[in-house]
Specification:
The chain has an 8-stranded mixed sheet. It starts with 15 loop residues before the first strand and ends with a helix. It has one domain: Rossmann fold (3-Layer(aba) Sandwich), CATH 3.40.50. 38% of the residues lie in helices and 16% in strands.
């Protein structure tokens, strides 16, 4: 195995263990070996993180739900400690294929998908593809609109523009001072104190993996494919819970557009919260998940009463 997988997270989530999923089939542009965390008991819950993060993004959510769900928190291709494959695609269809691989290779059924930001978009498109396996979708601050993270702040716009620039882009992607990383992430939080130093350090460590600047640049550049993926939302047949932070980078018009594509979805807006709700208000998605499980366990006759 490449040295790109010879790293381990410094963050431990009680009750979870680390696993790796090898790709099936001799694909020349394979997504490589996928790393995921698993733990808990109950129906399967697959957690999908956002741009430039990893499975540990859900460190505060997992303890709130693992007594009702068996949790699978995936490092998307090339991110976290999943294998970096030279020449691999990081557009939405390729990342969706990785999510589907996790579900089908582990033969997960009756699955709840929860994703934040880019992960929310992937949760919805995966549900459209695996209708017979997906039970419910919780989509938090779907990342599917023009501008993306560049709407966060002038600093974020400057960084993303530099990362995507021809020629110098890979160099810029490989330079991540802690103060800059912290400032960019805080731009996605209503409660700035929700960003902990050990998480920033973990993300910076991952960013030093050989080949990671190329991955980061490709992921920042995949926004058009995430916007295009909105065309799949109307194919989702499972119940959907849309959650937005009041201060999310999406505009009211973006949220309304998704409500129109998913007219049966439950919709909630979290006061004063930003883009990274899982970091600052993990209780909100935890309540949505646990309430859904409690409701599912109540006999239909009792519900009708």
């Amino acid at each position: 195995m490449s040295a790109t997988t010879d790293f381990h997270s410094g963050i431990r989530i009680p009750g979870t263990t680390e696993h790796f999923l090898d790709p099936l089939g001799p694909e020349p542009r394979s997504r490589g070996r996928l790393r995921y965390l698993a733990g808990g008991t109950g129906a399967p819950l697959v957690l999908l993180h956002t741009v430039r993060t990893q499975a540990e993004h859900f460190r505060h959510l997992i303890p709130l739900v693992q007594d009702r769900y068996t949790v699978y928190a995936l490092d998307l291709p090339g991110m976290g400690y999943s294998q970096i494959v030279p020449g691999a695609s990081y557009d939405e269809p390729a990342m969706r294929a990785a999510v589907k691989s996790l579900i089908t290779q582990l033969d997960l059924r009756d699955v709840t998908l929860l994703g934040e930001s880019m992960g929310a978009t992937l949760a919805l498109t995966t549900a459209a593809d695996l209708r017979e396996r997906v039970r419910r979708v919780v989509a938090i601050n779907a990342y599917d609109y023009a501008g993306g993270i560049a709407r966060s702040s002038l600093l974020a716009r400057f960084i993303v523009t530099g990362v995507l620039a021809p020629g110098i882009g890979p160099t810029v992607a490989g330079v991540e001072p802690k103060a800059i990383m912290r400032a960019v992430l805080r731009g996605g939080l209503g409660d700035k104190a929700a960003l902990h130093d050990d998480y920033v350090d973990e993300l910076l460590k991952v960013g030093r993996r050989p080949g990671y600047p190329v991955v980061a640049r490709a992921v920042y550049g995949n926004l058009p494919s995430l916007i295009a993926a909105r065309s799949r939302y109307s194919e989702v047949s499972a119940p959907v819970h849309l959650i937005y932070g009041e201060k999310d980078w999406s505009r009211p018009s973006d949220r309304q557009a998704n409500k129109q594509l998913l007219p049966a979805a439950d919709f909630a807006q979290v006061p004063d919260a930003g883009h990274f709700i899982v970091l600052e208000r993990p209780d909100v998605p935890a309540k949505a998940l646990n309430d859904a499980m409690r409701l599912a366990s109540v006999p239909k006759t009792a519900v009708l009463k």
